[in-house]
Amino acid sequence: MKRVTKSADETRAFAAELARTLEPGTILLLVGDFGSGKTTFVQGLAAGLEVPDLRVVCSPTFVMMNVYKGGRLPLYHMDATRFADPREVFELGWEAEAERGLTAIEWGEKVSTVVRKHVRILTFEVTGETMREIGTVEEGRG
Amino acid sequence: MNCLGIETSCDETAAAVVRGGREILSSVVRTQVDLHRVFGGVVPEIACRAHAEAIGPVVERAVADAGLKLPDIDVVAVTCQPGLIGALLVGVSAAKSLAWALGKPIVGVDHIEAHLYANRLVHADFAYPNVGLVVSGGHTSLYYSRGPADHERLGATRDDAAGEAFDKVAKILGLGYPGGPIIDKLARQGNAKAVDMPRLDDGGPDFSFSGVKTAVLYKWKGQNVGKGRKPKVAVPPPRIEDLAASFQEAVVDALVSRTMRAAETRGVAQVAMGGGVACNSRLREKMDEASAKRGFKLFYPPLNLCTDNAAMIAGLGTALFELGRMSNLELDAVATR
């Protein structure tokens, strides 16, 4: 499936729409370059889950993981860009809670060898100044 | 009163001794920047290991440089939030062990609030209330401060921290790590008006830097972006110096405008800056100009107290101790506030 969005707001709206349909335990691996809309997309996921304070949804690059609670599901927002080893993703204390929440991992390609269950890969491509093409690939379930 | 401060929230292992909350007796900082340079950012796993190796010698050195022995320490202060959880835990564990062994009180300190306290260590006329901006690799927050330990957060970034935007842009432009000093230097040879940058301002106190970062990506890689969408006329990318200068100007303008607006709204006489990005020469220049124009007195620490250090932790730790806001041996590290 491919979706073209023409602005950051459209990217957020698409993510919000998707978030309403996702089951607990889903892990989204977000794959795309700097500025391709990954964090913007997660802001939309949070909106779709009705996280109360959307202002707190920001880049997890520095702290590696942000957790947003108070919505339909807890949202675990990670950034894998600086993992020395993909297994570090399991050291953030999120795995045990993952099945009850929604997880979104930026630079998800870095952990795709170790995070395999309930995974959906989303690719982000910059196709214009504000235009993005978001593709989704369903991975092995169960 | 001698306070030993310990700081390990990111990639600097630091310890310092401050007397009376004002006088820096010693300040030792061991940076790990070379360990992380090859990765283009701080790698948590490497950071934790390096902290664990350095913490003992760094503390010993800070106490010795102060001309003291461990029993001369009256209180132990330590950064307990926010930061990389594994890195914070090294400092918190070391501080708890020391406090327990010495039978002295322990105080948990907020790293971001400590960045503002750095001004109090070096400026005798720094006073309250004031409006303070903390800008670093991990944080971009605006505060109204009623006292050294009484802060109200007015705004923060909605996406990337300012320093993070500098690092990411440096990576996009292939300039290396850390991005702040590299872009600062390069921008001096560029024209800040050469490249149009988005300047979003909703009139509120929050910041957003991902739009500027994306604009840099697009301007730099513009004609190569998107499969099969090559424009008919290839647009040459701007000069890298001009792009760096234009990006920096957009970030600096956003920081200055929000800070000035907050200071005017709150009716304060003093404005403060802290954090690693407060080392940026253009930010200092424009914040100086803007403050002078509006009659605000502006404070920022010297470079070595802008970047992560433990003197600011010991300073704020002393202030908290004097207010009776001690922690205990159950003190825990917290990654985000």
End-to-end distance of chain A: 21 Å
List the strand order in the largest sheet of chain A. Answer: 1-7-6-2-5-4-3
Which CATH architecture of the largest domain in chain B is right? 2-Layer Sandwich
Helix content of chain B: 40-55%
Secondary-structure content class of chain B: alpha/beta
CA-based gyration radius of chain B: 21 Å
Strand count, sense and closure of the main sheet of chain B? Answer: 5 strands, mixed
Average pLDDT of chain B, to the nearest integer?
93
> Going across the major beta sheet of chain B, what is the strand order?
3-2-1-4-5
How many helices of chain A? The count is 3
How many beta-strand runs of chain B?
A: 10
Query: Number of domains in the coordinates of chain B?
Result: 2
Tally the beta strands of chain A.
Answer: 7
Strand-pairing-aware structural class of chain A: alpha/beta
Give the DSSP E fraction of chain B (strand runs of 2 or more residues): 15-25%
**What's the CATH C level of chain A?**
Alpha Beta
Please summarize what this structure is.
Chain A has 142 residues and is of the alpha/beta class. Chain A has helices at residues 8-21, 38-48, 95-98; strands at residues 2-5, 27-31, 65-68, 75-79, 102-106, 119-126, 132-138.
Provide structural commentary:
The complex is a heterodimer of chains A (142) and B (337). Chain A is an alpha/beta fold. Chain A has a single domain, classed as Rossmann fold (3-Layer(aba) Sandwich), CATH 3.40.50.300. Helix content of chain A is 20%, strand content 27%. Chain B has 337 residues and is α/β, with parallel strands linked by helices. Chain B has a five-stranded mixed β-sheet, sandwiched between helices. Chain B has a five-stranded mixed β-sheet with strand order 8-7-6-9-10, sandwiched between helices.
